[in-house]
TrEMBL record:
Species per Swiss-Prot/TrEMBL record: Comamonas testosteroni
Keywords, sorted A to Z: Dioxygenase, Oxidoreductase
GO molecular function: ferrous iron binding; protocatechuate 4,5-dioxygenase activity
Protein name: Protocatechuate 3,4-dioxygenase
Gene3D superfamilies in UniProt: LigB-like (3.40.830.10)
Keyword Oxidoreductase belongs to the record: yes
The Extradiol ring-cleavage dioxygenase class III enzyme subunit B domain, residue ranges: 8-281
A Pfam family assignment: LigB
Spans through the membrane: none
Domain of life, per lineage: Bacteria
Amino acid sequence: MARITASVFTSHVPAIGAAMDMGKTQEAYWAPLFKGYDFSRQWMKDNKPDVIFLVYNDHATAFSLDCIPTFAIGTAAEFQPADEGWGPRPVPKVVGHPDLASHIAQSVIQQDFDLTIVNKMDVDHGLTVPLSLMCGEKDPKTDAWPCPVIPFAVNVVQYPVPSGQRCFNLGRAIRKAVESYDKDINVHIWGTGGMSHQLQGARAGLINKEWDNQFLDLLIDNPHGLAKMPHIDYVREAGSEGIELVMWLIARGAMSDVDGPAPLPKVAHRFYHVPASNTAVGHLILENQ
Ligand code: DHB
Ligand code: FE
């Protein structure tokens, strides 16, 4: 059967992608940020998954305000990097896994989560920046991402957005779905976006290091408790875009300690850095024991 062996959590700031695409990663501003991902890039090589189930949010790129799915699973064979206003990022196309994606859609919808099935969409920085951070520079002409990716988009842009508890429970359903797939493959689940940031209004630029680090602690040790945190706490403490962090609970809910029987996951890597553009960058790699 298929198995989720690890989860990865990382922020997705678009300026990080731009820094990589323009060869600025060694500049004084960016070097400390990228150093925090040196371990992760080696870890990706040493622990190469067969498929990445990548939870992210679209920023009104694939889904305009005309139509906003709460949870959308990408079932296509491939996804192109989106044009977000400066042209598409020069990174490889994302190869999907239609067979596993369809299986997960079937299983998760039958577990009473209403997913939107998306057979065609472009993917924005919410998905491509985490891939770039974890996999390093890739030339779209000669390189490919290391494995197929199932994009899973969550609405954290237009209220009402899903609660942390619903995201956590969805992660539990995704784990069951993966474990009922009959091929013996290794799946990683990624939760992306966050940490504290606010891009607009009177509190634009807000960063809350203490709250972010407490979030990381709770995500590791007490995800059941963290899932109960209401929206207002994310927005008050981590800023309006801090709400992106509910997506991390989907990936955490899919880890094997949540419904047992398994111990807490091993923390393979933990990193926190301020700032990247307007955002605090948090990053964790958790391995199932
Ligand atoms: C920034 C952060 C985001 O999450 C985003 O989607 C866009 C911009 C920023 O910090 O600049
Ligand atoms: Fe964002």
